[in-house]
Amino acid sequence: MIKDYLVNNAHRYASKWLVLAIDITLISISFILSYFIRFNLTLNFDTERLFLQLPLVAGIACIAFLLTGSYKGVVRHTGVRDVYNIFNAICLSSIVTIFLVIVNRQISVMDGFTIPLSIIIIHSLISFIVLTASRYLFKAMYYNLKRGFKASKNVLVYGAGEAGLLTFNALTAHTASYTNVVGYIDDDPKKVGKNLNGIRVYGRNELNAFLIDKRNVSEIIVAIHNEGNGFLKELVESLVEFPVQVKIVPPVDNWINGELKVSQIKQVQIEDLLNRAPISIKNSKISNELKDKVIMVTGGAGSIGSEIVRQITSYDYKSLLIIDHAESALYDLQQELKQKGIHNIIPIVGDIRDKNRMNSFFQEYRPNIVFHAAAYKHVPLMEYNAYEAIKINVAGTKVLVDLAANYKVEKFVFVSTDKAVNPTNVMGATKRIAEMYISCKHQESKTRYITTRFGNVLGSNGSVIPLFKKQIDQGGPLTVTHKDITRYFMTIPEASQLVLEAGAMGRGGEIFIFDMGKSVKIFDLAKNMIKLSGLRYPHDIDIKVVGLRPGEKLYEELLASGENTLPTYHKKIMISKVRELDYADVRSKIDELCVSNMFFNADTVGLMKKIVPEYVSNNSDFCKLDEEESKSGKVMPTKKDKEIKRIFQS
């Protein structure tokens, strides 16, 4: 009954007057106990004098408590500050009592109130211990009773340093966490085998199935941040066979008011396992570039476009046009920005293929900078919908590029993809053709045209991460197209920051590429995502290899053959030095492609292959075009093309 009452009324606080009454009662009991201790636990003292002195001692203690406010603290949240207030109250009470006793001895007003000084000292020590212990005892009882209604989970804290100790304190002080720390893990041999807070420190080599099963561990919380980029990935991969979740403590700089909260301990995300340091751009020119400018972002409600918009809103621009044909996504972004107090935005539902409507926007708002992120990007879908891919990625881009020149836009920044390099699919080829048209237009316009080219973006709409999460929620299996397929990855904020930085540093005509580190094996990515979900591969969720999709590459490239790079002021951002183009011929063929596509000409993909000679289809119905052209002698694939095709078909 008492247990039920305490838990069901946990939201209520004990009255401060009740706490004061209990404190005075404990002070009185301590005074009696001090007499017993002073006289060797016997009754060889004047009990009448004791009970005559007791009201005086209790009254002085009451005044001391009222003055220091030691009774006002919430008992179940007792901390160092509360103990400090108790200490002040006891000291004040003892000093006043000693002063009254000395005065009484001098003037001999009340002989019965002369208390031996040894009694006062003993009473002070006992009172401090009893009052402090009572609060912590109640706090422990409250937590134990509250946790008794829900099974606690056993966790290991990786890191027995200062961050590990602070993590332990945060976990044990938070009633809602129901967490029981059963051990620390550390690589320091000086700490292994010792106890911290009464809890054993284990070595990294002891982190095995025996320890996890023996201590019934369900979570491992990583509380270190100086082990390098590959440490966390290595740790997660080493735990693939174990049914434990891995969580991570944020860096100290991210703690709330310098104090770690349990809510800040998050499950490790796949972004945390990228085996490279995130891009960090310093001395950025973005602020000066965007100041007092009218900015247009196409595809502004998409994954990359919306993040570009979010980052732009932190600068001092004049107005921001957000164009997207997806009204729901655009509405959500508009509401998000409004809640942040951002109002100098103009959301526009529109299609970049509509030249007249786009022209009206350029004419009315006169943008200074255009970030073009609108595009179709799904490789298999575009392989079966070449008409739409050409209409958006080529013709739509062409509309915006021409309007930017006509209205003397200062800068036009195009968001491309690594699939434009040696393309093997319609989508990649359309993006490469768009890059080529931009290069042509740069030769005859004062507008500075800039292209950014990067790999896959973690968490973007339609990317592999959301797909894997959905498949895990459904119980699996996870589908991977090839066991050896690899991809470059970057986060959405990194990609958007790169686009903005390219817009600031670009002088026109460049293709900026990003040093994305090592490519990631998608099969390993799938296994890590299973692990991060607290499941085991293949026991809980399996991975199924389904074969390469139409137009899909086994690996991606950031540079085409015949290209090399030039450095910029940031070591992770480079300029691709592309091979020379016959601009007149390229423009003529692109115009022909757009017109041909308008009339649903079946040979549009063939025209694309003429514009982009390195475009060799893979695992697609369009492979027959390469074979026909090879036999006719019209277009002979290069040695590089043959090698790529051979690898894909194997």
Overall 3D form:
elongated
Secondary structure tally, helices? 22
Cα end-to-end separation: 72 Å
Q: Any idea of the CATH topology of the largest domain?
A: Rossmann fold
- Radius of gyration (CA) equals 36 Å
User: What helical percentage do the residues reach?
Assistant: 40-55%
Low-confidence stretches: 5-13, 635-650
**Main sheet summary:** 9 strands, mixed
| The named CATH superfamily of the largest domain | NAD(P)-binding Rossmann-like Domain
- Total domain modules: 3
The structure class reads alpha/beta
User: Which range does the strand content fall in?
Assistant: 5-15%
Number of strands: 22
Give the strand line-up of the largest sheet.
10-9-8-11-12-13-18-22-21
Q: What is the arithmetic mean of pLDDT?
A: 80
What is the CATH architecture assignment of the largest domain? Answer: 3-Layer(aba) Sandwich
What does this structure look like?
- With 650 residues, the protein is an alpha/beta fold.
- The chain folds into three domains: 2-147, no CATH class; 153-268, Rossmann fold (3-Layer(aba) Sandwich), CATH 3.40.50; 291-629, NAD(P)-binding Rossmann-like Domain (Rossmann fold), CATH 3.40.50.
- The protein is built from 22 helices and 22 strands.
- It has a nine-stranded mixed beta sheet, sandwiched between helices. The protein has a seven-stranded mixed beta sheet with strand order 3-4-2-1-5-6-7.
- α15 crosses α20.
- It is elongated, with a radius of gyration of 36 Å.
- The chain starts with a helix and ends with a helix.
